[in-house]
Batch of 3 targets.
Target 1
Amino acid sequence: GKMESESSVSEQLFEKGRDAGQIALRLFPDKPHGHFWYAANLGELAQLSPITVGIKAADDIRSEMLKVIEIDPSFQGASAFDALGELELKTRLFGGSVEKAIEYLEKGVEVEPTNSNIRLHLAQAYLAAKRKDDAKKQLETIIKMPPPADYRVEHSKAVEEAKKIIEKKF
């Protein structure tokens, strides 16, 4: 079917991205790019097939994103913190923790206050931790924030999502 072919196309793209990232991280281990793109694409593959890729990939993603932070915490708008926070939230069934997610995401907001995705995921983590007031503060901040120049599309998606959560939960 159509869906099937679409997902195999994206799977191939993420596999290419993962492999390119892996080459880059071997060639330039002291630059953030390879580590980041390898882990980001691995994360996408893990979402497509959580059972086969997911559990194995989690450790790889974690160690590569930590490497990115070690090299350049602000790389890609501090997205490594975002990835780590998401990973903690998604792997709660096997070792991930909401507290750790909050820690990574708060740090990410500190490093890059204009990244609305980090704020959105932080709000979700706060909700998971039953910290409704803190969650609401993040969501309201996203809605009021001016869109960052390089990330307008992502920002408008985050705003939409923030509004949805406010409608549902508050």
Target 2
Amino acid sequence: MYWYTLTPLDVLLFRDAKPFTPGERAWAGSTFPPNPHTIAGALSELVNRAKATKFTLKGPFLCYQETLYFPRPFNWVGKNQLVPASWLADNHRCRQAIYDRNYPVPLLLDKSQHSTETEAESEAESRLYISQDVVLKLLVGQPTEEKDWLCNAGENPKPWSVETRPHNAIEPGTRQVKDADGYFVENAVRLHSGWSLAIAVDAKTHEAIQEIGKLVTLRLGGEGHRAIFQRCPVLDQQWNNLQKISQANFEKGSNEKARSLAYLVTPGIFERQHDSNKVMCRAWPWEWDLAYPGNPKARRGHLVSVATDKPVPVSCRIRDQEDNSSIPAPQVFAAPAGSVYYLNQPQILFAEDSKAKQGKALDKAKRLQQLGYSELLWISFQSQSINTQAS
């Protein structure tokens, strides 16, 4: 894979998948960072479709001065990590907690190893994005520091600002703004100085881009705003290093059947069509069965617990090859980047399973993964980091 940065020349506009109707006091929803479908659409316009009809992407991620940044994992509260109740010592009082076994095991802070915060730490905001150096610490099992999770004084938790932009339409034949259907408001994103987006593309797409030039601009998002699209070889080594350690953690956990964490660094689309022909999405892969299901006859899997947040609506468009037009595709809901899955041992995704049944479902899962969705980094669970004494 070949890594590139996308540095905005102005603000960027990315509407979310929620429908809206321009009208009086109407707001258009926005999202940032953009989803992989948006990046694929921008690349489609940049390169010749005949040379790169399908893309294999990684990202998008944030980048600061040639360093990759990833969404903060949701299983960290401040500088303390959440733990599944079932992974505590047998004599721990929280092991007696009652919960709905149709869902994963609850997560909690183990007070026996919970560090006391100072007054300055309690007032500090948590970082929403962490550098690849911090992610590397998590992957290799090194202890993290306070500065890895908490912002410095005056530092913004997220590296962008939101600017509200009203849109007005003029009444035909007049200089007056339309009262209703011509007015709406949306939010624009302005990245802070030194920040950019980062993506990786496959070899075929890289060759097509290089034929255009080493430094090009492309349209990104709405209203025709542009970004500088530039090769960044430094990011290649950073990503390859993370991938190498992640794969080693996966293989070690599989061989030893050891507890592992799957860290979702891009939105995860996990959908399944049921017997009633209804397509449903949820926050964790359907192929990952619960380790402690409520039904004693249900198949036991390896998934213990999930740390996640509200779903991200994702919508794209389907191209009609006959008249070269496009129509809205069915909306799906993705698990947000930063979600973390606790498993008794690592397990592959449906799209990666060589034994999976061939068909439209598998093709779609593979296509979404090629676009950059559902990217996981594997972390070996450090049992020694948890105090096993009852609190």
Target 3
Amino acid sequence: MSFFDEGDEPRPAGPSAGERARRMFSPGATSATTADQQTLLVRRSVAGGLLLVVFILLIVGIKGCVDSNKRSSLRHYNSNVAKLARRSDAQGRALFAALGGGGGGKLDQAVSSARDDAKSVLDKARKLDVPSEMKMAQRYLLDTLTLRSQALDKIAPKIGDALSHNRSTASSAIASITGQMQLFLASDVIYSVDAAQLIKRALDKSGVHGLTVPQSHYLAAPLVWLNAQTVADKLGSAGANTPTPKRGKPAPGTHGHSLDSISIGSQQLTSSGNRVPVSANPAVKVKITNGGSNDETAVLVKVTISGQGFSPITAQKLVAKTKAGQSLTVTIPLPQAPPVGRSGKIKAEVAGVPGEKNLANNSQTFPVTFTR
């Protein structure tokens, strides 16, 4: 046999198909396969857990940034409101210092300056960047500053008339100015009761602590500036209760008035006690009669309400002319509503005129209790 005729070296026989099947389904093969599957599941679980942790950290980080930005926004708003409140209060102090200076020559200028500054403060407040948590507080802040601006709009053009030597003109202007003081008082109440409380609530709810919530007081002495007589005295106005101007010699014949009755609303007061409901815009009606034989000019009628626990409320009106033998009812608006639940007395009087000899019937006083 030749070399090349020798057969190939036999190769080791591989496992038969049956053998492979037996290995596959043998206990050892099953154990290895299960171990691989468990390892895969563990790896997947670990990877999923890591992804969840990363997701949670991401959410926490985002929320932390959002909360930090929100708190920063609330602090910024509180700071801006404080600046506006300080500016408005300083404006009020300057205004009332000028008004209480006795009507100096620069009073017109001081009031006009306060009016312009109030508009500027209101405009700045409207442009504030307002966090959603401060929307209601912002609304009451704007109400506060709007009332102050509106009051100054009405007061500014009345200053010249209030300083007029014409008593009728001055008295009317003083009444108007005193009425606007109510708006200043209302602005203080709205700010302290609503705006400041809502700002504090929003800060506390958002976890912003350690800040001072700004306060604001425009009308520093309401018991002074809500009284028409005091306003007139402060301004040095002819609308104050000064004696009637001197006239010439009285005309021949009789002179004088009688005070016939006092009413509030539709209720005429009597000596037996009176329970009077208080309205939003109270006024006292005083009926007088010119009992003389001459017409009279510049007749002053005055009303005073007094009692324990509250300052006297005074108002007056100058009647240009009364006709001999005729009666008329003089309506005198009060500068403020009397306190509900308090008792006191109402006195009305008509000032004597030149030539009047009998003043015994020039006034009446009645007890009264004010109710809702």
